[in-house]
Amino acid sequence: MVSSPVTAIQDVQLKRTDRAGRRIAGRRIAPLVLFALGAVATVGSIRLELGTLQHPEPGLWPLITALTIVFSSIVILVRPGAETLEPWTSKSISVATGVSSLCAFIVLFSLVGFFIPAVLMMLLWLRVYGGESLRTTIILSLAGPLVLYVIFDSLLGVPFPRDLLLGLFL
Amino acid sequence: MDTLSNLGNGFSIAFDPTNLLFVFIGVVIGTAIGVLPGLGPTATIALLLPITYTMDPTASIIMLAGIYYGSMYGGTITSVLLRLPGEAASVVTTFDGYQMTKQGRAGTALGIAAIGSFIGGTVAIIGLTFMAPFLANIALSMGPSAFVALMIMGLFLVTSLGTGSAIKSICMAAVGLLLATVGQDPINGSARFTFGQVPLLGGLDFVAVAMGLFGVAELIKTLEQTEKAQVIKTKIKNIWPSRKDMKEAAPAIGRGSILGFFIGILPGGGGVISSLASYATEKKLAKDPSRFGKGAIEGVAGPETANNASSSSAFIPLLVLGIPSNVVLAMIFGALLMHGITPGPQLMTEHSGLFWGVIASMYVGNLMLLILNVPLVGVFIQMLRVRQGILVAFSLLIVLIGVYSLNNTSFDMWVVLAFGVLGWIMSKTGFDPGPLVLAFVLGPILEKSFRQSMLISGGSLDIFVTDPASAIIFAAILAMIGFKIFGGRFKKRPAPVLFSSGSGSTDTVAATDQTVVSGGVELEKSSNTPM
After folding, report:
1. In this predicted model, what pLDDT tens digit does every residue of B299-355 receive, in sequence order?
2. Which class for A54: exposed (0-12), middle (13-18), buried (19 or more C-beta within 10 A)?
3. Is B296 helix (H, G, I), strand (E, B) or coil?
4. How many CB atoms lie under 10 A from the CB of residue A156?
5. How are beta strands B191-192 and B183-184 bridged, if at all?
6. pTM of the predicted model as reported, rounded to 2 decimal places
7. Left if phi > 0, otherwise alpha if psi is -120 to 50, otherwise beta: which for B195?
8. ipTM of this predicted structure
9. Which among A6, A75, A95 has the least Cβ separation from residue B531?
10. B187/A148 Cβ within 8 A
């Protein structure tokens, strides 16, 4: 298994205690969600028609996988484990805002093309999240999207939605 | 002799100027991302998948393979100099490699690691060259039931040898299999789990799923980290090891090559497990084990050799059986599927050029890496100056438009983002995305083989027992489950390196090796490795 250095490091060290490890109730949320997913998928598979082992219909294979999810999530619910987990911190909120900005990018991308949302996204990610200087931020936020636009739209021929700004010039 | 003439053809393909360029691009990117603590090989290959879509299949696999084994070299550099493993397999190298740096022997550590990696990689490719055709011939005679058994064994080993909890990995593998059923039924074409969405009829795009779980998830995770990058103060000199160093390291390199080769063939075996196994072996065989953790050259040479050998031999199950043995190879599997090529025993005959071209390119790539890593190590260290914020912002932008370019629809952008968030939540809750992606790739083939087996047997599950090949494989799986359950009762014995009773071999090695444990803890304190 290739895992990230962070998880590999966690595997190597054994004797670390953390408060997150004791919050067992919190560890049951994920298996509950998985259980719900498995249950919904089970019902969905049965609705697809199962057929027989000799003549399996579309639902049989998904049913096998859905039941595996149900059973394994029950085991995790009963024994949620005590391995070290990355704690949820106030910094986790910035992940949520970062993801929101990416959602905004996708919506704007469909409406006004690539350039404007790309510049806005770069401004936010370089200045606010990356802590770059104002000068670096502005140069990279304008030059980066322009170069990417030329590479993807003009050279590779990826049909971007009509660009409100660059569409006037390029 | 057939093998040699095929290999000759392979070299003529690998030496084609375009392919040569892609070997070079692959190994340079691999080394670079090994150095950059921001991206591992998995994330990088995930990010590059859309680009390979437009490339010639042979060139794209040559490049992706280069990134994989190249990253094994690159990860060494930061492990030795800064005690920051650029990718998981290099964690072990920090134990003795960083100590050598403190003693002013950084150059020797890097040099012996590069030489060991080259030897290990080359030995494994020679093994791959001669073993692959032999195994492919056996595999060609296997029926669908044996393939079901093999894939289940692959998934089982990945879940049990992986780095997380086994039951969580099984659950994730099942989720991956379920996600693979989204779209049209492979036999009668009826829609499954599409919720009336037309873009879902073709199924979830593998590239979007992989880029989300590995690429986007790693990138957004950086928002939680606050650490600043370290600066290298060490001067690197005497990279070419002295005769005494070579003499000390040679047996470790020899053992590491063999150990890495065999561990790499096992599903779930590439990378970190082979380097841990080699470290444990070297320490056990050493005349004075107390030197380990204090700058023993064997502690660098053995694991570095083993991780490179295993990353090359891991191509055997992929190219011969069509079973990716770890996540990086699952990505390469996905890249082949995108080009309409299904890896498996018929690959060698149906796409002989690709098969031998990729193998030959690995000989060339390893040689390039030796050259890149011995005289040019200083150039790569400069890469540490790239600031993470810039890297992340650009990577995200490229991910979003890259995934858009797959089908020219913003639907895939939403998929990649959704899986990115899912991957981030999974890492926070201790679920490994690896088994999910592996199962997602294997899902359609597993379902097809299962249904074929049922058709052949007339609906009887007996076929898995009566077919000798599948019976042997299932027996092996049962034996491993038995060992996992009961193996823990024999703890007094010297701990087996591979099949431990814990959540993975890492625990076993750590538990028997105090140096490793303390090294790991120190590592944790000082590490500011953002993924």
Report:
1. 999 999 998 999 889 898 888 888 887 788 888 988 898 888 888 888 888 899 999
2. exposed
3. coil
4. 12
5. antiparallel
6. 0.80
7. left
8. 0.84
9. A6
10. no
